[in-house]
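Narrative of accomplishments. A recurring question from our advisory board has been how the design workflow behaves on a single, concrete structure rather than in aggregate. To address it, we present the structure tokens for one chain from the evaluation set, followed by the sequence designed for it. No filtering or post-editing was applied between the two.
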């Protein structure tokens, strides 16, 4: 009698391949895996929110280079591919942590405030310096915020009324809330916008930067500890541990380099609308599916 995954210690660790697609096309994904000589033990499918999820259970690791190649094949059909070492247990408490700007919402709030103050180009130049590695995040943020000096305090409220959520955000946050799953937003943006978003979408925990306001106008000074990549990781650990949630039951979602550490700390870390600087440092990201794809991280069985 041959060894099974249950009796063979070498195969005791299950891993999962997950394709997310707008089409019910299992034959395509079977073919892609066969083309890379990947053998799977079983296969299951679920659909929700206009997405089909195709799960393949395997008992061997796949190098990052091959994951990237499989993802490229899937991309031809506007499908996403993820390699996960586990799925979430729907019977256990979970924590979903999000970045905000360009992740939950389409805009970068500081850019929109800069437009309103007529200093967009100056702020964009500082952003460019930071992306080129000439400025660290904290220094770049302080320089950009300084350009906001003089903006009316109600600029935050006016901007909030104009922001657009990314596809699937309303649905995924509503679903997580209804299931009693804890959610958090840790943003390198600004507290007035994040706190309003958290109230409107029943977010359990949130942190962002506080700006000084005098006589009804922004002074261009940051009062709080800056929410940078180190702080985001610390906050994930803080709320995960205070809620007594297993590290394996945490999900972190972001789009940029400032999210790298919290994505690495989470049990499942995912790039969404991810910039190349983040993609080069993580294994999994979603290019095509709406945010409701996150609900497919729960074990379908």
């Amino acid at each position: 009698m041959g060894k099974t995954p249950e009796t063979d210690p070498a195969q005791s660790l299950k891993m999962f391949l997950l394709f997310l697609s707008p089409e019910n096309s299992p034959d395509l994904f079977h073919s892609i895996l066969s083309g890379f000589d990947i053998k799977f033990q079983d296969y299951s499918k679920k659909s929700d929110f206009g997405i089909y999820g195709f799960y393949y259970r395997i008992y061997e690791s796949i190098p990052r280079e091959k994951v990237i190649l499989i993802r490229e094949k899937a991309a031809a059909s506007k499908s996403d591919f993820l390699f996960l070492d586990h799925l979430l247990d729907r019977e256990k408490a979970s924590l979903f942590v999000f970045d905000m700007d360009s992740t939950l919402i389409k805009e970068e709030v500081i850019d929109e405030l800069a437009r309103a103050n007529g200093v967009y180009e100056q702020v964009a130049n500082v952003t460019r310096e930071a992306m080129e590695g000439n400025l660290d995040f904290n220094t770049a943020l302080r320089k950009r915020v300084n350009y906001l000096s003089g903006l009316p305090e109600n600029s935050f409220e006016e901007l909030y009324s104009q922001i657009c959520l990314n596809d699937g955000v309303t649905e995924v946050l509503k679903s997580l809330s209804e299931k009693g799953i804890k959610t958090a937003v840790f943003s390198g943006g600004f507290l007035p916008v994040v706190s309003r978003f958290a109230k409107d979408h029943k977010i359990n925990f949130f942190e962002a930067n506080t700006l000084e306001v005098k006589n009804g106008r922004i002074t261009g000074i940051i009062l709080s500890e800056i929410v940078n990549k180190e702080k985001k990781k610390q906050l994930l650990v803080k709320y995960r541990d205070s809620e007594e949630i297993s590290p394996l039951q945490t999900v972190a979602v972001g789009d940029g380099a400032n999210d790298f550490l919290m994505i690495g700390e989470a049990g499942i870390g995912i790039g969404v609308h991810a910039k190349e600087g983040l993609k080069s440092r993580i294994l999994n990201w979603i290019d095509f599916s709406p945010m409701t794809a996150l609900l497919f991280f729960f074990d379908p069985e």
